[in-house]
Structure formats: structure tokens, C-alpha cells
Amino acid sequence: MSTDPLLSVSDLTVLLPVEGEQRAVLRDVSLDIRAGEAVGLVGESGSGKSMTARAIDRLLPKGAQVHGQIRLRDSDVMTLAGSQLRSYRNQVAMIFQDPRAHVNPVRRIGDFMTEALRTNLGVSPADAAHRAADMLAQVGIEDARRRLHQYPHELSGGMLQRVMIAAALLTEPALLLADEPTTALDVTTQAEVMAIMDELRHQYGLAMLFITHDLELAAAICDRTIVMYAGQVVEVRRSELLHSDPLHPYTAALAAARPDIGSKAARLQAIPGRPLSAFEAPAHECAFAPRCPYAQDACRDGVPPLIDLDGGLSRCLRVGELRGQLEAAHA
Amino acid sequence: MPENESVPVPAPAADRDPRLLTADATGHPAAAGASRAAAGGSPGAGSVSVLEVKSLRKEFGDLVAVDDATFSIEPGRSLAIVGESGSGKTTIARMLVGLERATRGTITACGRDRSRPARSARDRRRRGREIQIVFQDPYTSLDPRQTAERAVDEILRLHHGWEADRRQARIEQLIELVGLDSRQARALPRALSGGQRQRVAIARALAAEPQILILDESVAALDVSIQAQVLNLLADIRDETTVSYILISHDLAVVRQLTDDAIVMHRGKLVERGLTAQVLDDPQHPYTQRLRASVPRPGWKPTRRQLVPAGPADPEDQAEQKGEPVD
User: Fold this and answer.
1) How confident is the prediction for chain B on average, in pLDDT?
2) Does the predicted model carry a pTM greater than 0.95?
3) Fewer CB within 10 Å of terminal CB in chain A, N or C?
4) Which residues in chain B touch residue A264, judged by CB atoms under 8 angstroms apart?
């Protein structure tokens, strides 16, 4: 636990210009990822989970106002430019939800996959093609040589996502930012893609930030899970404790709201209201308080700090007294 | 491609007979009967199915999207059609509402045939009062220039021909039933969130007072906390009306929550049927087993398909490896 983090984000606040005003989308986000560690980042619409990944990969839109610090080992990510930024992106590779939106439809799979190797790392075209074919085989794609000559439209969604994973791994990154990489896939394909990512991650000692709306998926495949709400981190927890011993009422509510495949509930425990974006949420009190069954006056007196408990973190003033009740109330 | 052989059907245990479907399955009434008996026999004997689908087939060129699907829905019960992309589940929905014409087979809703296109506007309206559908995407299924109230009113005028007062009263009822407030009722879709739009779509579908409401992945795009609200709403509506749902979904937890019976589709074929609880707790067909095993849960470890008992003979694998888009 004492090893230095591979990637460290501290007090990251991001504002984006919307209709002429700067609106907060992230507020004081801090997180660490250690080498080889899988960290889940879970939240609903507007929680800021994707924005966090984009900020880490320096992919924020123009006009974004960014405060705070992002460090990869010893380098300050915010100041990187040009070739340094390209080299950083080879070390921190990103996979997106919709592979089709992130691949040039008129370029062959091989050209797409080997581009970074050829242009940034000076690998010869023949060697690059060889490595690409090799990696395709590792993600379970047969007949890899022929695939390299195909176009994206000739591949199914599941297969194309495997190509994206293979392409991301080619530059031997230290960290994979995976933004809902399986959300658009069928469940059986999701299981397969997750299995492949899990295997290769262990094989290459790769760290991963896995962004998803699916608490169960994050809990199943990540070492730790970070839960976000309204642009803030509200809980950090070892994944195996996320369902059985959550520390924040929102995490517990999110788990309880999902129907259970094993039994039919008389009534689902819906959370009243709707998820808020950072700029809509109350700025000087607990952002979840308006929807929280445990909210008290004190919760509205200021933004609660992240409180340390049992190796986890919770942005809830009542974390100590509510511990244990959250799970019991929603079991 | 010999699809029949490639998905092996295990020898069924004697007490399971009705659940597994063999290639020439014709025992559908028996299956439905067994489900009812197992469920405690909700509808009385001799009750007429609200929907009967027999040997339904749809071809698109060489592709057989739906191959010999037979199922029925008894009054007051809800059916899940479970499957992944390319399973044919959405094609079935489109045939049920008349957006596609069946290549073969019959569809009977509320005792009337709807396998052939409606012959008149009146006929079409009558069909609209039998089956309505709510689509997946709440962002594209509403007219952007129409407020929620007007969207509902349009359906009331079309189907019931009531006077303004009566329509207004019904609009208010429906808007309240789906949990929208009066400000949201007068808002255009762009001012509403995804969950709110989906409520408008549900109110609009219910305005026709259909016997059957098809929910085609209608809650799939919603945030978890909103999805729970909409699922509770759908349960309330079912308690308060006589509507039967057909839930088309890949989400097995949602299926468990909302339906009594389930059929599982794979590559155009109906591979398993039964009570939803049975199908999910004790799946018999290898494909259903694989689907069930693919659902993330605490302690779940994802596996590559080759390692799953279903085996490499799966036609989906072959299709994928041939490079055919399967979705």
C-alpha cells in the first residue's frame, strides 16, 4: 500500500464553457492508481467519470479551465506538449465505448493499429505489422494477417473492440483508461472482452482505470472502486466490500436500485429525483443530500470532506454512525 | 449452416419436458399450460390468449432473422423475450406492431389476425388499441415540437374521439400515472431528461389503452436510479390496468423484475421457454446457461468463450471469425 502511485490526480477541478458561462464538471477529484492495479470509476450520467478519464488523457475540449495536478510517476502531465504528449499517450492508452466512432472507417485495421509504432516509436512497417498480428492473436482473433487488411466495417462490434484493445496494448502502456469499453456489447461478448483484458493486464502488469455505470461489473473486475456523484468522488472502497459494506449512502442506494437477477423485489428501492451534474448540484453542501434518506441539517452546512474509514474513503459526515446500516437497509 | 445441430439440446429431465424446445417443438400450448400450472394457475382454464404467435418466420434475403417462433401470452401475464444482437427479438417486435411483414406464420392479437397489413385506417387504429410499443431511445422516439401533453392528446383524439374536457382529464391522469408534473407536461422533449422522455413515451403508448405494451429495451438507456423508478412505474401500471407487457431485453435482472414468463432467442431461434424465475435460476439450454454465466456479480470471473461449456461450435463464433458483423 505504501508504494508510490503510478498515476496521481490531486484536486482536479474542470470547468467547461456552456452557453457562455463556465460550468463545473469536476470538483476536487483526487485519485491514485498504483502500478498493475485495476481501479473502477463508477457513476451515473453527469457524475464526471468520463470527464476524469479525458482529463487524465489530456483530451478535454478547447476552452476547458483546469485546476489541480495530474502526475504520471514524476512527470507533470498538465504541462506536456508535442512529442512528450504523444509519448505520454503511448504510456496511458485509452479505449472508448464506441469503437466505431474512434477509428477511421476508410483506413485498414493494420494501418490504424501500427500507426503509433511507426510514427512515434520508429518501428519498421514490417516489424510493426508482425507485432500487430501477434497482438490480434492474443486478443483471440484468428487469421490475424488477413484482419490487418480489412476495414472496420467488415468487423463486428465485439471484434472491433478487441482490435482497439490490441492496438492500445501495442505501445506497451503502463496504464489503460477504459471508458465503458463493453457497454455497447452483448453480455456474452462483454464477458469475453473482459476476460481478455483481465488476462493481458496481468500478463503485462498493466494498471487500468475502468469507467462504467455498472457497479456489479466494476466490483467484479477491479481491485478498488471509486464512486462519483455530481463531479465529486464520494466513495473509494476495496471492490469486494462495495456491496457488502458500502461507506456512502449513494453507493448503497445505487446497489439497491438495481434489480436482482436472483429474485423479484416487490418494489425496487428507487432513489428519488435524478442524478445531477456538478454544476446543477448544490455547491456548498453535500451534493447527494437532496436525494439522501439520511441527510441532516449538518449535511447542508458545507461540502463534507473525504473521511478515512477502514481503508476506504467516504464523503459522508455520518459515515461512522451509518456504517453497517447502509448494507442492512438495502440488502 | 447447420445451426440446428450446432446448438446441442441436452436430454431433458422428465419434469422439464415443456421447457426445452426441440427443433420440431409443437408443444407450445402444453408449455404454456405447464408454466401456468407451475405459477399456481393464475388465469382460469379456457381463457383466451391476448397474443398468439404461431410458426413465425422472417427472412431478409438469405438471412433468416426469425425462424419458426411460436409463443402466446395469457391475460394478465407478462412475457420477456430475451436475447442478444442478431437474436431476432426486435424483428419479432416489429412484426407484432406491423412495422415488418412476416414471411410465414400467424400473429393473433386479442383474437384477431394481424399477420397481414391493415386494410384501412380504421383497422390500423384498432390494431393500435391492441398493441403499442415503447422504443429504447427516448431521445429519438418523440416529436421534438410536441409537448408531452400534446403528444398524449394526439393519441387520445385518434383513438377515442373524445371531447376536449374528457381528453384533458385523461391527459392529467396519464401524466400523473407516469410521474410527471404539470410543468414537465407542458415542456418540449428537449427540456426533459432521458427518464422523463421515456415516461412521456409510456404515457403516450398507454393513451391508446392497449391490451399489450411492448417494451423494446425501454429501460436499457436509463441511469440505474432512474431505471428503478421506471420499473416501479411499470409494475404500478400493470397492477392498475389489464395491460400485458412484452419486455424485449438483454438485461436478465430487469427481466426477472418485470415478467412472469420468458422465451430465450438465439440466432433467430427460440431455444428455451418457461417461467422467468425457472429460466434464470436453472437454465437448461447451453446458450441460456452461457447468458446467465456472463452476468457480472460479486465474485464473478469473466471467461473466454472457449472455456465456457457451450463450446466452440457456437455459430456466433463462426460468424464472428468469418468477419460477418453480428450486430
Assistant:
1) 81
2) no
3) N
4) 256-257, 277
In this structure, the answer to whether residues A165 and A249 fall within a common structural domain is no
Residue in chain A lying closest to B320 (CA): A156
**pLDDT tens digit string along B159-173?**
988 999 999 999 998
Domain count, chain A: 2
Nearest CA to CA, how far is B305 from chain A (Å)?
6
**ipTM of model over 0.90:** no
Torsion over CA: B69, B72, B73, B78 (sign): negative
Q: Hey, is the C-beta of B320 within 8 angstroms of any chain A C-beta?
A: yes
Question: Residue A82, CB half-sphere, CA atoms under 13 Å: how many?
Answer: 1
B3 vs A81, higher pLDDT: A81
Question: Are A212 and A42 within 8 A, CB to CB?
Answer: yes
State the best of B239, B300, B320 to mutate against chain A, taking most chain A CBs within 10 Å.
B320
Q: Which of A197, A222, A247 is the last residue of a domain?
A: A222
pLDDT digits (tens, 9 = 90+) for A245-286: 999 999 999 999 999 999 999 999 989 888 888 888 888 999
Alpha-carbon distance B201 to B220, whole Å? Answer: 14
Q: What range does the domain containing A28 cover?
A: 7-222
B304 with A192: Cβ contact below 8 A = yes
Instruction: Give Cα separations from A9 to A35, A239, B38, B150 (angstroms).
Output: 14, 20, 56, 49
Beta-carbon separation of B294 and A190 below 8 A = yes
Spatial contact of A178 and A9, defined as CB atoms under 8 Å apart:
no
Please say whether the beta carbons of A31 and A14 come within 8 A.
Answer: no
pLDDT in tens, B56-67: 999 999 999 999
pLDDT, residue B182, reads 84
Asked if A188 lies within 8 A of B277 by C-beta distance, the reply is no
What are the cell numbers at A10?
490531486
A53 and A100 assigned to the same domain = yes
Q: Which domains does chain B have, with CATH numbers?
A: 47-322 (3.40.50.300)
Report yes or no: B190 at the A interface, CB cutoff 8 Å.
no
Chain A residue with the nearest C-alpha to that of B310: A188
Query: Among A24-28, A45-49, B12-16, B195-199, which stretch is predicted with the lowest mean pLDDT?
Result: B12-16
Q: Which residue of B has its CA nearest to A137?
A: B321
CB-based contact (8 Å) between B265 and chain A? no
pLDDT(B2) > 80: no
